[in-house]
Task: inverse folding
């Protein structure tokens, strides 16, 4: 039962009362505060499918990815492999060095896509508000769901049970009042677990949370924060929004909110894509063109995974490929070419074209695809510029 604070009373006419098994408020409050968001994250998705379909792989250190002889990278790996330090986007050659008994499995993207579609059918049984992030994770807004008395906890449990019953795969889940906290929660009891962050918990929960859990805080930003004495959200809360913006630019205001567990973003069901890109900012600058080339396989793998998720939602027609480079001196340049094919090799001349403009160390490298507008079909060139 809800109780009103004697220091902050409001009449029932001014307040909305919203209670559920896990979320309870005495308000006034906005629509965003009423949200109950679930983040579902499949456990080692590709590797789990391979182990499910091939019993000989169960309990073994396995990695799904390309050949080490062709600069292949790890798409995902089993928990048995992770114990040796193997992780996604790692060069397969490095993974085999860390774990000599590692079993490499070539990816079966069509199979992963089909399984992902079946899992999304399960999501749709509980809510229409679904935001896919990739083949193996999604946000669900169950604020208005009538299933299981509107309990996000019970809905998450039911979804995980159905995934196991129908696909023999495990999933982890997080439930919270917003997307940021739901994603943090889904990682709390991995694998095959779930965690709920209730509104009353947010204040205390945020204080010890490492800043590296904040989306957008990569290794470079985390290193800079450590230099400033910022390691937890409690440290971050000591900074004013103006000071954060002065230090981190426009990202500062976002940091100010997320450090307090504030995230107003709705679950977006708009699957209209104009472009998809991936990028990486390196802790140590890439010294030359060859080093940039060496990073391409991992970037392309990440791009393929995002493309697969997007293609599941709509028919996308590639229009052009783009490469983005930020040099050591923070100068940004891009190279782009018209092309309806999305292949790793086609990014090589674009990387060369962009790098040769300054021929200096690179701190950020990104690749992407722009799409033709679906209502404006066009004949696309198959040529690309050889820089």
Result:
């Amino acid at each position: 039962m809800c109780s009103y604070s004697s220091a902050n009373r409001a009449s029932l006419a001014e307040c909305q009362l919203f209670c559920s098994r896990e979320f309870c408020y005495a308000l006034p409050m906005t629509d965003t505060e009423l949200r109950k968001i679930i983040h579902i994250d499949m456990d080692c998705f590709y590797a789990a499918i391979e182990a499910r379909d091939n019993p000989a792989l169960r309990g073994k250190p396995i990695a799904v990815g390309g050949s080490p002889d062709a600069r292949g990278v790890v798409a995902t790996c089993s928990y048995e492999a992770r114990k040796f330090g193997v992780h996604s986007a790692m060069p397969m050659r490095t993974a085999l060095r860390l774990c000599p008994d590692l079993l490499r499995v070539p990816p079966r993207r069509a199979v992963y896509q089909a399984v992902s579609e079946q899992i999304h059918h399960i999501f749709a049984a509980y809510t229409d508000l679904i935001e896919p992030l990739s083949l193996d994770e999604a946000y669900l807004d169950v604020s208005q769901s009538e299933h299981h008395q509107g309990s996000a906890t019970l809905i998450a449990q039911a979804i995980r049970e159905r995934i196991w019953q129908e696909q023999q795969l495990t999933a982890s889940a997080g439930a919270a009042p917003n997307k940021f906290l739901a994603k943090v929660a889904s990682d709390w009891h991995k694998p095959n677990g779930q965690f709920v962050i209730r509104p009353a918990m947010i204040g205390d929960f945020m204080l010890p949370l490492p800043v590296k859990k904040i989306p957008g805080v990569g290794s470079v930003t985390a290193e800079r924060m450590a230099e400033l004495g910022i390691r937890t959200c409690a440290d971050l809360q000591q900074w004013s929004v103006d000071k954060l913006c002065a230090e981190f630019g426009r990202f500062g205001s976002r940091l100010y909110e997320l450090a307090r567990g504030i995230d107003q973003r709705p679950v977006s069901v708009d699957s209209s894509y104009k472009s998809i890109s991936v990028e990486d900012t390196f802790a140590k600058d890439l010294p030359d063109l060859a080093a940039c080339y060496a990073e391409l396989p991992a970037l392309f793998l990440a791009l393929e995974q995002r493309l697969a998720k997007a293609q599941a939602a709509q028919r996308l027609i590639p229009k052009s490929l783009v490469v983005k480079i930020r040099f050591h001196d923070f100068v940004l340049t891009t190279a782009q070419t018209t092309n309806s094919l999305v292949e790793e090799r086609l990014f090589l001349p674009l990387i060369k074209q962009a790098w040769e403009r300054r021929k200096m160390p690179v701190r950020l490298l990104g690749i992407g695809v722009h799409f033709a507008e679906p209502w404006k079909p066009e004949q696309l060139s198959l040529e690309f510029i050889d820089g």
Summary: The chain is about 35% helix and 20% strand. The two ends are 68 Å apart (CA to CA). The longest helix spans residues 289-313.
